[in-house]
Each structure stands twice: as C-alpha cells, then as structure tokens.
Amino acid sequence: MQWILDLSGGLLLIAGSAFLLFGGLGLVRMPDIFNRIQAGTKTTTLGTILILAGAAFLNPQWGFKLLLIGLFLLFTNPLSSQVLARAAHRRGGDKSPKATVDRLAEDLPDRRSRVRDSSASGEHL
Amino acid sequence: MDSKLDSRLNDDPGAKGGTDGSIETRIKHPLRDRAVLFVTLLLFWLMLNGTLAVDSLLIGILVSFIITLLFCSGLSFFTEFRATPQAFAAGIFYYIYFFKQLVKSNFKLAAIVLSPSLPINPGIVKVRTKLKSRMGRLMLANSITLTPGTLTMEMDGEWIYVHCVTVESTNIEQATAQIVAGFESYLEVMYG
C-alpha cells in the first residue's frame, strides 16, 4: 500500500517540476513582460500545487496544511501577477512588436481625466 | 464616513464615467465585512497551527485583529458569499471547472513555449462583467488570469482589461463570451 502512495507522490512531484520547467522556458522565450507574466503565473500555480500534492502523498499527515498553503497560493499568485502587469503597463514601454491591439492604452486618456476630476473634487480613487 | 459611503451607493454602479471603479463605493456592510475577515483570518491561523493552546490562540486573535483594522475594505474569502445550497453547489462546480481550465492553460502554454515558431498574437482586449459584488469580481479576475492565454491587467468597475497571448476577437461582446462567460455563470450564483 505504501508503495502506491510513494509512486503517485513521486509522479506528482515530477509533473509539477515539468510544468515549472516549461514556465522557466516561457520566461526566456516570450517576447515581452506581459507574455512572460502569463507564462510565469499559470505554470507556477499548477506546478507548485502539484508539488504540494506530491508532498501530501509522500507524507500524508502534512496533507491538511499543504492544502491550506495551496489555497493561499491560488488566491495570491494571480493577484500579484495582475498588479505587476498593471504596473508595467502604466510605466509604459517594453511591448512586443507582435502585439496587435491595446484597448487599455486606447482608453487611457479617458481614465486619466477621470482620475484628475475625482481627485480635484476631493475623492480618492 | 459611513453615511458618505451610503449616499454614494445609490449611484447606478453600471453608469459609465464616475468613480464606480473605486472599491470604497461598494462597501455595504463595513462592520460585518470586518467581522468576517477577522473570523476567516483566525480560522486560517488555527488550522495552520493545529492547536488550541492559549498562547497561540491569543497571538492569533491579536494579529487577526490588527490586520482587520489595517485592511479597511475588509475583503475576505467569505465576504458577500451567499450562504445558500445553490451557492455551495455552484462553488463546487466552479472549482471543478477552474481546475480543468488551469490544467488546460498549462498544456496550452507548454505547447506554445515548446514550438519553435512561438505562435503568439498578443494584445489587450476589453471585456465586461455582470458581477456586482467585490469578491465576485476579484474571483473572476483571478480566474481569468489562470485560464488559457489570458491575464487580467486592470479592472475599472464592470470593465476588465485582459491581456491575451492569442487574440481571437477584439469585439467586446465576443471577447466577453469567450473569456468571462464560463466563470461568470458560477460566480453569479456564489456572490452575485
């Protein structure tokens, strides 16, 4: 019975590491920061969850805490990526020549003026 | 401060323009939200510790209380959750759908990264959500980030700006149907 747990735990660890490897490859190959963040977020989320699951199989009494860590990761990982992407876009520059459309930049003058209006009237955005 | 918030709540949240994008305008129950945040934090701490010893319990209460005071928007996992059987069922289906999408997105990304030509067509599109609650929108933004080829960049009220590795449609309705609709149907039942 123990060997089934060990085997599936090991396979989960390998699968998780493989996804993390693809994520690393994505960081190198993708042309601009937004695509890099995409590669980084998805693979680290699933990769780390698979590794946590593998650890849970190898050491079942850690299971509950590993589940909590996975849940925490699931919420914070995409959030930090989103904030990074937003900051990068606000700073401007470093956009891939392949990029086709940018609705956010198109709407930016409108948004800027609204921020100015609301700060002038004493509200904070 | 609360009365000012209440007066602003009556504005139509769907109206274009105005400052409906700011979080403060949608807080309906500041005290209850904070209580929920406090309880969630304390539960998380207790589950991580796995003990009810007095010293760890006191530290947990103290730290949870300080964090609750610092985070004035008081948003946590169960804030605005509709505690109905339908919401719990939708939550379970949501997580099944979500993990399916997460696995799919990883394989899609691996395929892109491993192919020599790097077949991408990146761009930022604009989509619209029907969700009104803060937690529902947060979950939606997070879900979009973890689904195949999409990354939430900016939220502005009901508008979400999404970066796509491969842009399929720049039309708002079509992009919304492709990117948002799948998760929205579950989150609408869970949070509204």
Key terms:
heterodimer, A: 4 helices, 81% helix, disordered C terminus, B: 192 residues, mainly alpha, 2 domains, 3-stranded antiparallel beta sheet
Average predicted local confidence, pLDDT of chain B: 76
Shape of chain A: elongated
Main β-sheet of chain A: number of strands, strand sense, barrel status?
none
Structural class of chain B, by secondary structure, is mainly alpha
State the helix count of chain A: 4
Number of separate domains of chain B: 2
Distance between the termini of chain B: 26 Å
The low-pLDDT segments of chain A are 120-125
Q: Tally of extended strands of chain A?
A: 0
Task: Give a verbal description of the structure.
The complex is a heterodimer of chains A (125) and B (192). With 125 residues, chain A is mostly helical. Chain A has one domain (2-120). Chain A has 4 helices and no strands. Chain A has helices at residues 2-29, 33-58, 63-91, 103-120. With 192 residues, chain B is mostly helical. Chain B is built from 7 helices and 3 strands, in the order H-H-H-H-E-H-E-E-H-H. Chain B has helices at residues 2-9, 30-49, 54-70, 85-114, 134-146, 172-179, 181-190; strands at 123-128, 150-156, 159-164. Chain B has a 3-stranded antiparallel β-sheet. In chain B, helix 2 packs antiparallel against helix 3 (54-70) and helix 4 (85-114) packs antiparallel against helix 7. In chain B, 34% of the residues are buried. At the A-B interface, helix 1, helix 2, helix 3 and helix 4 of A face helix 2, helix 4, strand 1, helix 5 and strand 2 of B.
